[in-house]
Automatic annotation (TrEMBL):
Residues that span the membrane, as ranges: none
Pfam families: LolA_3 (PF19574)
Record's keyword terms, sorted: Lipoprotein, Signal
Superkingdom to which the source organism belongs: Bacteria
UniProt lineage: Bacteria, Pseudomonadati, Pseudomonadota, Betaproteobacteria, Burkholderiales
Keyword Signal: yes
Protein name (record): Outer membrane lipoprotein carrier protein LolA
InterPro entries: LolA/LolB/LppX, OM_lipoprot_carrier_LolA-like
Organism of origin: Achromobacter seleniivolatilans
Length: 209
């Protein structure tokens, strides 16, 4: 009876170990789209610099622009282009506005290609994964401190424009790459991003005007 008991005991131990190994991937999978959205929305204000490059098939070198940005939770994005030209853009739920020479914000047409990209940038930077899921299939890999989100268009219209959009980040978004069906692509990199609890007086005026 003893050998039989030992064999049964060993079998049960192995079975329990196999069950534990089977459960481990599920318990270890702790970072999902809800976690990502919560993580990106946890900071009220993010300021930093950006480098945006447009790689066109017809040009040997990318078109490069640089500037500063301020992302404010619930208010939108200030996109302050500094080179090669100076241009201030504000992106929020109402659309996209550009500051004119008098300092007033003027609304821009909503159907331009750049407008579409900027709205996507805002949704991504703001962690609006729920909104993104309306137009894209989302595939998230990695962990909270190093993740990658791949967006594949759902609609025929978007599939005619984008192959996919790849986003990389950690606590904040670090890099966004838009790959277009015709072969062009845009890469946006955020650097020196820092979190803050509140907007500066100038930023408050920019969002409230």
């Amino acid at each position: 009876m003893k050998p039989l008991y030992m064999g049964t005991h060993l079998f049960i131990r192995r079975l329990l170990m196999m069950a534990a190994l089977a459960i481990l991937p599920l318990t270890a999978r702790a970072f999902d789209l809800n976690d990502l959205q919560t993580q990106l929305r946890a900071t009220p204000v993010v300021r930093g610099q950006f480098v945006q490059q447009k790689f066109l098939r017809s040009l040997p070198q990318p078109l490069t622009s640089r500037g500063d940005f301020t992302l404010a939770s619930g208010q939108g994005l200030l996109w302050l282009l500094r080179t090669p030209i100076k241009q201030d853009l504000r992106i929020n739920a109402k659309g996209i506005s550009r500051r004119d020479e008098t300092g007033a914000w003027q609304s821009l047409p909503q159907q331009t290609g750049s407008g579409r990209e900027n709205r996507l940038f805002l949704s991504v930077l703001a962690g609006d994964t729920t909104g993104l899921q309306e137009n894209f299939d989302l595939a998230l890999t990695g962990e909270a401190n190093a993740w990658q989100l791949l967006l594949t268009p759902k609609s025929v219209l978007l599939r005619q424009i984008f192959d996919n959009i790849q986003i990389n980040g950690g606590k904040l978004v670090d890099r966004i790459e838009l790959r277009e069906t015709q072969g062009d692509r845009s890469v946006l990199q955020m650097t020196d991003a820092v979190a803050a609890d509140a907007l500066s007086p100038e930023e408050q005026r920019a969002f409230s005007d």
